[in-house]
Each structure stands twice: as C-alpha cells, then as structure tokens.
Amino acid sequence: MERLVNIIKSHSLEKDIGKWAGLFRYLHFAFPSGFSLDLWKKYEGYNVDHNIVRALFSILEEEELVKKNNNVYLVTDDILLQRFLENTHQISTFNYEKITQKTDNLLWTMPQNQLENIPRNITSTFDYLNTSIQELIQTTNDKLIFFSPYYSVSGMINLFTSLKALLYKNSFVRITWVVNDLLNEQNQNAFDYLFKHLDSNERKQISVYKTIDDKLSFHAKLLLADNSRGYMGSANFSKRGFNTQFELGIPLDEKQSDTLTKLIEHWINTSQLKEVLMDKKS
C-alpha cells in the first residue's frame, strides 16, 4: 500500500516498521480478545506520533488485516499481517536507482526449522526466492509476465504491496497473468482478490490469459520482466511457495527471459492463450 510506504518514508520510520510486525504478533497471541490503540502504543514505547499510529491502523483495516470490535482491535491473520509489513519495509528502503545485479546464486524457499541445520557454506550460495521476486516486480519498467498454473489469495497478498507500488510509480507498465484454469476455485479467488483491491486505472494495466484446451496445459512457473530478467522455478505464487515449503528456482538472464517472453507472446498472438475479460471498471 503506497499510503503506508509514503508515511514510512516521510517520517523516517523504516527502522520502526520492522519491529511492528513482531509487536502485532505478540499482541495477537497475548490478548486474544483484542487490544486497544493505547496498549499497542505502550508496548511500542510511545515512539510514534498518535496520528501516525491511527493512520497505520486505518490502512490495516482497509487491507482487512485487522478489524475493530468496539474499542479493541483484532488481528485477522498474523502471518499475512507480518508479510504485509515486511513487504512495506522492503519497498520503503528499496533503492529504485539501483538495477538488480545478475547473481549466480540459486533461489530458494527454505522452511525456518530446516535453515538453522544447514551449513553456512551452503546457505550462502542461495538467495531468497521471495526477495528476488519482489525486486523483479519493483524494478520493472515496461512489462511483467506471471506464468503459473496456480495462484492463491495469500500469494496475491504477498505480492500486492510491490504490485501497487509498481503501478503507482509507472502508469504505463503492463502486467500479464497466465493461468491454466480460471474455473479452479483457488485461482478464481486469487484474481477476485487482486481486482477487488485495485482502482479502475490500475485494472486497465492488467490482463489475464488462460489456456483454451488441454493441448497447452502447463506446470512451469515463471516471472518475466522487460524481456531482460526473470525467475523460473518450482514455486507457485502462493503462501506455501513463498514461505513454508522447500522450493527451488533460478534467476534468468536476458537471453533466456527474452526467449520465454517471446514464446508466451506467440501463444497470445496465435490465440492459444485467451484473454479473460475481468471486471476492469467497478
């Protein structure tokens, strides 16, 4: 959400937002019946202006990550709230002038309970898959292509802050989503969430395509940016793929990204992929 990013930047709160995620999780478990704004401020240490705190809670309510019940607040999903704040922190501190450097490291999602048992000489040769994907989105200039058989609401929430920031700073960027089966309930819910939380102009920058028969059924997962950079790997764009199960991927160089982009655009141009007319107005 660009509103929160702007607040963080304008008040130099980049260091504070990192601890807010942990604070919300603590209050969520310590006070299951809800907690007040004053209690949140007390545990935070009264370091943040009251109006900023009110704005934070208002934004989280809009995102349906917290809800107000009488005079107390309840966290609707502590994991998604933490991810939202982590992504906001990442965008707030991201240097858009710096183009992501090519890396030879593999990409992975590694469950935390396994990570601590892996030697440093192995972990140092991997970059986090989620971080790489967020950076690809944030540094896109012209077009972005998501290509996967499955998406989920939690995956959309994970990507949403970076997508909103991209659309906010670039009104000309085009985002294309490709999916096997939009009748699949999980996919349908994911795209319903996406379009529900975009404004009318942002929706016009997005297209969704699906396969028209079983001849082009696919299992590949790709993210391609500007014909020049990309990701290919095992992870679906979902909460499990980004956070909780072992996944592997590789960063794609310019030649590989350009070839795969041209392949997908060929399928679109020859009607092997059909655009789904999502609601782009309301």
Order of helices and strands: HHHHEEHEHHEHEHEHHEEEHEHE
* N-C termini distance: 19 Å
Largest sheet features: 9 strands, mixed
Q: Looking across the biggest beta sheet, what order are the strands in?
A: 4-3-10-9-8-5-6-7-11
Going by CATH, the architecture of the largest domain would be 2-Layer Sandwich
Oligomer: single chain
Can you tell me the residue ranges where pLDDT is under 50 for at least 5 consecutive residues?
none
Question: What general form does the structure show?
Answer: globular
Radius of gyration: 20 Å
Q: What's the helical proportion of residues?
A: 40-55%
Mean pLDDT: 87
What's the number of helices?
13
**What percent of residues are in strands?**
15-25%
Number of domains: 2
Written overview of the protein:
48% of the residues lie in helices and 18% in strands. It has two domains: 91 residues, Orthogonal Bundle (Arc Repressor Mutant, subunit A), CATH 1.10.10; 171 residues, Endonuclease Chain A (Endonuclease, Chain A, 2-Layer Sandwich). The protein has a nine-stranded mixed β-sheet with strand order 4-3-10-9-8-5-6-7-11, sandwiched between helices. The protein has a two-stranded antiparallel ribbon with strand order 1-2. The two termini are 19 Å apart. The mean pLDDT is 87. The radius of gyration is 20 Å and the shape is globular. It contains 13 helices and eleven strands. It is α/β, with parallel strands linked by helices and 282 residues long.
Which key features would you list for this structure?
single chain, 282 residues, alpha/beta, Arc Repressor Mutant, subunit A, Endonuclease, Chain A, 2 domains, 9-stranded mixed sheet, two-stranded antiparallel sheet, 13 helices, 11 strands, globular
